[in-house]
Amino acid sequence: MENQRTTVADGLRLAVRTLVYAVLGGAALLAIATVVSVLGPMVALDLYTPPVAAWWTVFTAVAVQGVPFLLLGTVVSAAIGAFVPEKVFSRLLPKNQALAVPVAGAAGVVLPGCECASVPVAGSLMRRGVAPAAALAFLLSAPAINPVVLVATSIAFPGQPMMVLGRLVASLATAVVMGWLWVRFGKDEWLRLPKGRTTPNATTGLRGFASGLQHDFLHAGGFLVLGAAAAATFNIAVPRSVLDVFTGSAWLSVLLLAVLAVVLCVCSEADAFVAASLTGFSPTARLAFMVVGPMVDLKLMALQAGTFGRGFALRFSSVTWVVAVVSSVLVGWWLL
Questions:
Q1: What is the pLDDT of residues 290-314, one digit of tens each?
Q2: What is the pTM of this model?
Q3: 3-state secondary structure string across the chain
């Protein structure tokens, strides 16, 4: 009994300490970005380089807007992973795979998760008896349509509720279609189920929350900074004449931002601010950026390859990219 109390107390202290570190880290990142936003343009103007001043402005705007949602998203994601039992999913999902897919996809609205955590969560669900098609639908939908992401999108695109609705519909449609495609065409030999650990205490409870929060925030924060820098560089460095080649064509602009989403690997809680900064592109192209990014990017492909096998990652990611682009175009044509 005494040992249990000591363990709970230690876990509580660890969780509180990690949460404090994450909050302080987010505040420090905001402070640094704010200072840089003030000093950066001044230094740039002193050096007679207005483009550099513009770069600082875009970079800090994306970073400062994205950090609070990144922190909130990682806190919620870590809490879901640590405190929501995985058996909840198997109990709530219908036995019929075709029916389980849309239910699992819709569960992403109320059970948010970071895309970095969605792959191990999906593997764990499969080990617990959840049909692969349903687990894969949840893998795609949870990082793309959760409340934190939708609120961030509404703030990044003020006065444009159709952009939020478009992201929700296109992302959910992609997740459900991919689940149904797996029901119809998926083969067991394509999917290597991961071997799970038998010690659930390693990833659940207060220690699991603290570990997940620390990992997700630091990992996703780095990609946010890289994404903000890449977006700023893209806006400033790429000549307008080159952009006109793509922006003049509806299809080319969509394909360019869909490829850019794969390369940038921006966290879903912050990618709306990056998309909003790409003002030279059409709403449909920016919608494609936000739909593709949480479902297909380089880090996710690496995670899928390590968890489910390289053959699965290649097939699943390539088909998901195509379905996400088509879904974005159709929804954008309908709503935007």
A1: 999 999 987 778 778 877 888 898 9
A2: 0.71
A3: CHHHHHHHHHHHHHHHHHHHHHHHHHHHHHHHHHHHHHHHHHHHHHCCCHHHHHHHHHHHHHHHHHHHHHHHHHHHHHHHHHHCCCHHHHHHCCCCHHHHHHHHHHHCCCCCCCHHHHHHHHHHHHHCCCCHHHHHHHHHHHHHHCHHHHHHHHHHCCCCHHHHHHHHHHHHHHHHHHHHHHHHHCCHHHCCCCCCCCCHHHCCHHHHHHHHHHHHHHHHHHHHHHHHHHHHHHHHHCCHHHHHHHHCCHHHHHHHHHHHHHHHCCCCCCHHHHHHHCCCCCHHHHHHHHHHCCCCCHHHHHHHHHHHCHHHHHHHHHHHHHHHHHHHHHHHHHHC
